[in-house]
Design brief:
- With 252 residues, the chain is an alpha+beta fold.
- It has four helices and 17 strands.
- The strands form four sheets. A six-stranded antiparallel beta sheet has the order 8-7-17-16-13-14, with no helix packed on it. Strands 10-9-11-12-15 form a five-stranded mixed beta sheet, with no helix packed on it.
- β11 and β12 form a beta hairpin.
- α1 packs antiparallel against α2 and α2 packs across α4.
Amino acid sequence: MSVLRNLESKLAGLVEGTFSRAFKSEVRPVEIARKLAKEMDEHRVQSLSRVYAPNEYAVWLSRADREQFEGYEGELREELSGYLLEHARRERIALLTQPVVEFRTDERLRLGEFGIQARMVRPGEDPEREHPSQGDEGHTMVYTASERLSEQLREPDPRRRTARLLVEGRTEIIGSNGAVLGRSRDSDVVLEDANVSRRHAEVRPSGASWIVRDLGSTNGVKVNGRQIEGAQSLKPGDEIELGTCRIVFELE
């Protein structure tokens, strides 16, 4: 059974059991968990021998959503922290400490919206430091309870167009938030190839253009037959190679 399904089973019991009356808002614990794992994956940092990721996460909720968790935040924080720790172990991600999840209120958020900020905190930093506002901690991703990524806290580039990936006889439409490609069932574009890593690469917009970025894969990424280091910009017709899969990048 997958990590996510394990979590869903645990939280299903939590929701249906003792705390069933607590979760009446549009934001659900499993939705928060999925996006926390997404933020962990997207903020990976590759060192010489390890892949590190943030270990502290602030979950911003509307006042109405946060009130639904009143009295139960401690238990939910522990569940989410345990899920992130298990996810990191499965993905072979190194953490400086056990993940910490905190809930905070943002009056700008509407019912059903929540923001997530990820930080890498070294052991020994003052745990009693004053909590900053959203803008002070860095870039915040805002999600909706429908599990679709809302706009980031900035307007998208109007010149950006929707991308298409031609993958093994099928067409994958990639929106303005990009997509992760890999063998894992949690990837946005799943590739059935043993030579492809679980989370092999991502294709996403960068400014007015699009890029492909290696996510620390075992076999690397090629664009038009040439191995790339880190990230490389893409233009229509470029061929991306992940393992034995050949993917053509197009723009609509």
